[in-house]
What we know:
Layout: H1 2-17, H2 42-48, H3 72-88, H4 100-108, E1 120-122, E2 135-137, H5 139-142
Antiparallel strand pairs: 1-2
Helix pairs in contact: 3-4
Amino acid sequence: MRRTLQTTEQSLGWLMERGVPAVVRAEFQETTIKPCDVGSPISQISQEWPQFDWSEIDPVYPSKEGFYEYSQEALTKRGIAARRWLRDRPEKAIAVVSHAGFLRVGLCQKKFDNADFRVFDFEEGEEHGKFGPQLVEWEMTDSRGGGLGKSPKGAFGWEINGFKTMPNKTPECTEPRSEEGA
C-alpha cells in the first residue's frame, strides 16, 4: 500500500490539497502474498499518511486470507466488489491508484506499465451475472496502449505466467517490479 500512497500523493496531491478525497480501500491492494506485497498494519500506516481517508478500510487489512487471499476465486470476487464500489460512488470521475496485477485481473483485463493510465466508463445495462459490472475503455487510451502509450495493447486477464506463485507460496521479491500499476 505504501507504493500506491506515495504515487497518489505525488501525482494527485494537488487535488487532495483542494479537498478532493483520497479514500483507501483494501480491495485495490496488490494480488500476491510476497512479503513486499503484504501491507503494514492500519494503525501504523494511517499514522504515517493522515491526509488519506481511512474510514472505509476493511479492518482485516493487511490480511491475505479469505476475500484477500491470493487465489483466482478471491481475486475475482475482490474485483467485482471494487468495480461495484466504483460504480456506486457519487463522483463523475475517479482516479484509481493501484497495482498492475490487480488492475488487470480484478478490474479491467488490461495491462499497465509503471505510471501509465487508462480511462474507462461502466458498460451500460445489466451486470454480467457472476462477473459483475464491466468497464469499457475509452478509445483514446485503448488505441495508444494507455494514456502514455507505454502499456501493451489488448485484453489479457488471467495469464498462467502472471501467477507463477499461486497458491500459498511465499517467494522472495527478487524479480524486477514491472507491474507496479497506474
